[in-house]
Amino acid sequence: MMVCIHAAVGAAIGGSVRRPLPALLSGVASHLICDLFPHRDYDIKIEAPLAALMFGYLAKRYGVQSPQFLGAVGAVLPDAENALAVLGVIPRDAMIFPTHCEGKSWFAGHGAKLESPASQIALAAIALALANRET
């Protein structure tokens, strides 16, 4: 799942939870669920600017201490290990998140690859509408 989509879903959940720590933890849980659905991932050169734009929007709209922003942070945290692996900082077999650690006994699976990002864009639009509704 695209990082910016994880962030949008985390923001919606954070807005519903309305408390900072539960928002952060719920965001992490949402990452697992989102990764199980069919989706398209992109190169870090595309993902990073889109994620920066999403976090910029969320910070400006809600503030960096808001449940929406913290839900988004939680939702993206698991992809830090993906970024570290892509950058060669850690080996892929050192990844531990249940949808990232293929080959480990706790691997939960990962959604099938899709060609089009259309379903993810729709999910982001719905999630952002829900996050906005909670203000």
Describe the model:
There is one protein chain. This protein has 135 residues and is mainly α. It is built from 6 helices and no strands. Helices cover 63% and strands 0% of the residues. The chain is globular and about 40 Å long. The two termini are 26 Å apart.
- Looking at how many chains there are and whether they match, the oligomeric state comes to single chain
Shape label: globular
End-to-end gap: 26 Å
Order of helices and strands: HHHHHH
| Fraction of residues in β-strands | under 5%
User: What's the average pLDDT?
Assistant: 93
Task: Return the domain count.
Answer: 1
Q: Tell me the helix content.
A: 55-70%
Indicate the low-confidence ranges by residue numbers: none
From the alpha carbons, calculate the radius of gyration and give it in angstroms: 14 Å
The biggest beta sheet is recorded as: none
Please count the helical segments: 6
Using DSSP, what is the number of strands? 0
- Helix/strand class: mainly alpha
Structure summary:
This protein is an all-alpha fold and 135 residues long. It is 63% helix and 0% strand.
Write the layout of secondary structure elements.
Elements: H1 3-17, H2 20-36, H3 44-62, H4 67-76, H5 79-86, H6 118-133
Descriptors for this entry?
single chain, 135 residues, mainly alpha, globular
